[in-house]
Amino acid sequence: MHPITQELEQLQKDFSQEAQDIADMQAFDALRIKYMSKKGLVAEKFKVMATLSGEERPIIGKHLNQMKAFVQNRLDELRTSLSDAGEKSAKIDLTLPGNRPVIGRMHPLMKVLEEIKTIFREMGFSIETGPEVETDFYNFEALNIPADHPSRDMQDSFYLPGERVLRTHTSPVQIRTMQKVQPPVRMIAPGRCFRRDTPDATHSPMFQQIEGLVVDEGVSMADLKGVLLAAMRKLLGEHIQIRFRPSFFPFTEPSAEYDITCSSCFGSGCRVCKQTGWLEISGAGMVDPAVFGFVDYDAEKYTGYAFGMGLERIAMIKYNIDDLRIFYENDVRFLTQF
Ligand SMILES: [Zn+2]
After folding, report:
1. d(CA 261, ligand 1 centre) in Å
2. How far is the CA of 111 from the centre of ligand 1 (A)?
3. Ligand 1 mean position, distance from CA 274 (Å)
4. Is the domain of 207 the same as that of 311?
């Protein structure tokens, strides 16, 4: 055996030994230069080729190439593992503050709606819903709204093909519920409504309403006022008073507009309530017996009351907001205040 064979084995052993102790790129470079540079230990061994006979040359040449490949492979492995470790330690900086996950929250309108639902549920009301696309019958006719009533005007309602209309109030839900069940009825109907209004601080073509209906024997206007007062006090505070002003609606008789104590000045008069001490809320009244005719209720036996309230209006009062459009702009800076 040519002595070079043993030398090559020794070189591989030495190299492997040294490679084991390499812990950083600096030491790696030193090792690489020591063995694989032009004048390194590997190149040094190749010099033996010039001294070999024609028979020895292919055999020793093969050994030399195997040794060189061994060193190169091991260096490649080492480089990969060192640069991986480097990247990892650069990526994970344990001293950085953590990312706090953003926690979602309920939209202020939904929050007020949930409160209103809870208040009425506790007073024995059921929560009813109905379609947003209605027929003329449910949105107008069954509510005693005659064909020449201004609310039927094309200027006021969104009409759809097939004599359908986007409901202009949640009152159709009352009709649908009364068709399904016999008295006693004690329900609220929250939901989206649509009217051809130009958006401004207090109007929106889409708004949310909550309407209430109670039908039973011996139901009176005093019950109506008592329920509204209790609900408004729970919602906005014990200081709230309520007042009725005579009004007219096709589906109630008698009808009233109801106001509550101004929550900005507690009734003493301020800019918000235009010095009256009162804030207008919505309409209410005793169900017109003509409406009972549409749902086959005995108007001799039963009486009922109905009331409405605008969700945006209530939320504006509760949170002291003067422009309802802000509820629908989805500005997170506004929404996270609640
Ligand atoms: Zn006021």
Report:
1. 8
2. 24
3. 7
4. yes
Instruction: Kindly indicate the confidence band of residue 82, based on its pLDDT and cuts at 50, 70 and 90.
Output: confident
Listing from the earlier edge strand, what are the strands of the sheet with 159-160? 133-135, 164-166, 159-160
* 71 and 153 housed in the same domain: no
The CA 269 to ligand 1 mean position distance, Å, reads 4
Query: What pLDDT does 127 receive?
Result: 96
Higher confidence at residue 146 or residue 115? Answer: 115
Q: Is 64 part of a structural domain of the chain? A: yes
CATH number of the domain at 314, please.
3.30.930.10
Alpha carbon of 314 to ligand 1 centroid (Å): 15
* Cβ neighbours, 10 Å, residue 98: 5
Cα of 128 vs centre of ligand 1, distance in Å, is 34
Q: How far is the CA of 275 from the centre of ligand 1 (A)?
A: 6
Q: What would the pLDDT profile of 207-256 be if each residue is shown by its tens digit? A: 999 999 999 999 999 999 999 999 999 999 999 999 999 999 888 999 99
What token pair was written down for 79?
């480089």
Measured in whole angstroms, how far is the alpha carbon of residue 177 from the centre of its chain?
A: 30
Of all residues in the chain, what percent carry a pLDDT higher than 70?
A: 98
Regarding whether 126 and 87 lie in a shared domain, the answer is: no
Ligand 1 centroid, distance to 243 Cα (angstroms): 15
pLDDT over threshold 90, residue 332: no
Domain residues for 328? 108-335
- Say if residues 27 and 78 touch (Cβ distance below 8 Å): no
Q: Does the pLDDT at position 86 exceed 90?
A: no
Q: Average pLDDT of 193-209?
A: 90
Ligand 1 mean position to 209 CA, how many Å? 24
Written as one string, the DSSP assignment of 200-265 is -SS--SEEEEEEEEEEETT--HHHHHHHHHHHHHHHH-TT--EEEEEEEETTEEEEEEEEEE-TTT
Q: How far is the CA of 257 from the centre of ligand 1 (A)?
A: 18
